[in-house]
Structure formats: C-alpha cells, structure tokens
Amino acid sequence: MTADRIALAVHDHGGDGPPLLLLHGAGRTLADWAAVAPLLVARHRVLAVDLRGHGLSPDGPWRLPEVLGDLEEVLTAHGIPGALPVGHSFGGILAVVYALEHQDVTPGAVNLDGFGWGRPDQYVGLDPDYVAQHLAQVRELNAAGQGRKLPPDGVKDLLAEQRAISERLGIPYELLEAGIRRSARERDDGALELRPGREEALQMLEVIDSLDLFALFRRMTTPLLLGRARRQVPSVPGLDWFDPMMLAYAGGLARDLAALAEERPNVTVAPIDGTHAMLLENPRAVADAVLAFTS
C-alpha cells in the first residue's frame, strides 16, 4: 500500500464470462451488490470492491487519479484488466470516468442512476436561481452529515433505523444491516464513526461537484448504459420544497437523457423500476438491465 495505490477490499463473486467490476456509491459499500451480483455470475465473472475510505478498504486522499489507480490495480491483480465497470450512483460516475481513462482495454461502462443533483436548468418549470439556492442548501446538509460519530451503542440505534427503513420500503433488512456493519468502525480514541471520514467525504463531494456529467457521457465512444430510477426518492422531513424539486429534476433528466440517446447511438437509456436505492429494492430489475446491455 502506498499513498497513490491502495489495496482495496474485494468480494470475488466468481462466475464465468466477460468480467464485471461493481462499484458502489458515495458512503456505501460493496454490500449494496449482495443481491445483484448472484444474478450476474451465470454469464459474467463478477468482482465488487469497497472504494478507498469505505467499508473495509484503507483510507487515502480522495483524488480521481488515485481512485482510478486503485481500480486498475484490482483488475490487474485479478488478471481482468478489460473488465466492464458497472457502478451505482457515484460509482456509476466513476465507471464512466474509468472507461474514458482506459479506452484501450475497457469495453464500455454502466452508470446506474449516477447523475448527481444536476444543473439548475434541468429542474423543469422552476426558476434556476430558486433551484441553485436550494441545491446549495442540499450541499450544506450533505457536508454537515459527513464523518458521523456514534456513541458506544450507536450501531444498535442505527440498526433500529435500518429496520424501520426495511419495513417502510420493503428492502430486506439483512442487506441494510450488512452495509451498516461494514461502514462502522472504531477509531483510535475508542469512538465509533461511519466511514468515510469527514475529510475524505468532503474531498469526494468536491470531486462530484467538479464533473460535468453530460460532457463525460458525450465523450464516450464505446457502449454506455445509463440506468435511470423510475421512482422518486422518499420525502425528506422538514424540507417542503424537496419533493417538487425532485419531480422537476426527474422531468429534466428524462428529457436530457432521451436527447442524448437520440444523439449518440452508443448510449442506451434504461428506466429501472425503483428509487435511487434500486440495488436494494429491485435487484432483479437492475441485473436484467445490465444483462440486456452486456448481451
């Protein structure tokens, strides 16, 4: 392990056929793929990783060259440098960036609902200044919630929250529990925290904000699958403006993705029945979309 290359935690799901590298979203872990990966192994060799600073992987500065180098090292070590990157949320963005940086060996990319918060003009019917104001509030809330420290019995309380989410959204509790247990760690001072740490998380948010996603999509010349959630994320208590904004964004995103697919024959857009939590809610729909694309 060096400052530039980190030996990531890897779950090798096995399987035969063209290899896939599964990438989770920001603040998540490879446990998110636990229900999807078994549906892919009949036709693919499947690896899932914890990105640096997440799950069981070591910490390190969150800069794109180093993060992409981590992934390259994983694929080289497993003898599958030409694996197709398949990512969810921020992992989907990383899949596209990785494919662009390794065009000589990477056959394409799969981005499952990795579109960030979009541009103000994508919020159909809303004033761009109004949208920008509230997006700034969202970013502040995101930043404030990073590097969450827990009391000694904090994991117990978090698991109770996850059980409530399981019952409300119909997500198997075991999937939610695995993610929490993989993300919680004891620090040197004895305190518990959820990974990634605050410094790494803020660096990651800066990376996300620095990227022009549709410009990246248009740079792709190899096949690109863009999976879009068909259902909105749940409401946020206390934010009355959140639901109308998300509805407006869904309209603008669907419009822009349709235009992109019309413009670029290498781009496939696949609506997937689920919210942003599609990997946990509807793993079959996710797997079907990936398998239809790779076939």
Automatic annotation (TrEMBL):
Taxon lineage: Bacteria, Bacillati, Actinomycetota, Actinomycetes, Kitasatosporales
Pfam families per the UniProt record, alphabetical: Abhydrolase_1
Name the record gives this protein: Alpha/beta hydrolase
Domain (AB hydrolase-1) ranges: 18-146
InterPro entries xrefs: AB_hydrolase_1, AB_hydrolase_fold, AB_hydrolase_sf
Keywords: Hydrolase
Superkingdom of source: Bacteria
An example molecular function term from Gene Ontology annotations: hydrolase activity
